Amino acid sequence: CIKSNSKKLHKAGINTPRKDNAPLLQCTHHMCPIRIHWHVKVNYKDYWRAKIAITNFNYRLNYTQWTLVVQHPNLNNVTQVFSFDYKPLVPYASVNDTGMFYGMKFYNDLLMEAGPFGNVQSEVLLQKDINTFTLKQGWAFPRKVYFNGDECRLPPPDTYPFLPNYANIISVAYSTMAATLALIILLA
């Protein structure tokens, strides 16, 4: 592996694929060529927003026309996908928990090799169904993820952070009021 700040990365031909297709990976704790990062960005009253970022750690390989398949219980409520194309995969009419994300042609359908341009990202807006929606016990995170047909290993759900289903308006109001009073006292 090679560190992201290594001087070796400035050598000519470092990104050229080899005949044996040996990867040149950036040193990470997981040593995988790809990282899919699913980040719960905002938790609105009726919607929630997740950011999806795909990072390439292989200095010798870019991915053209990549695909990301995600299994998540709330994908039946996708409202908007901002900079990836999205297609629900509905093998059973009653179950819509799987979808395919892929790059927009001429915009981000090419995931470049590791380095400053080796990532693509998007945001997904999902509507909440108060009868089924919860952020308890890792619910906000995908159950399965596949990149270009290969299944990605996910941490167990009990290691995910616990998130509230909604912000408590009273506690937010009290904390805002307390912060305002503290500023007034400091400025006086």
From TrEMBL:
The protein's topology relative to the membrane is: Lipid-anchor; GPI-anchor
Q: Which domain of life is it from?
A: Eukaryota
Q: Which InterPro entries match?
A: COB_C (IPR056900), COBRA_pln (IPR006918)
Residue spans crossing the bilayer: 166-187
Q: Which GO terms describe its cellular component?
A: plasma membrane; side of membrane
Give the keywords, sorted: Glycoprotein, GPI-anchor, Lipoprotein, Membrane, Signal, Transmembrane, Transmembrane helix
In its keyword annotation, does this UniProt entry include Lipoprotein? yes
User: In which compartments does the protein localize?
Assistant: Cell membrane
* Record-annotated COBRA C-terminal domain positions: 12-161
UniProt keyword annotation of Membrane present = yes
Instruction: List GO BP terms, alphabetically.
Output: cellulose microfibril organization; plant-type cell wall cellulose biosynthetic process
Per the UniProt entry, the signal peptide is none
Q: Which family does it belong to?
A: Belongs to the COBRA family.
Q: Which PANTHER family would you find in this protein's record?
A: COBRA-LIKE PROTEIN 4, PROTEIN COBRA
Q: What is this protein called in UniProt?
A: COBRA C-terminal domain-containing protein
Q: What is the taxonomic lineage of the source species?
A: Eukaryota, Viridiplantae, Streptophyta, Embryophyta, Tracheophyta
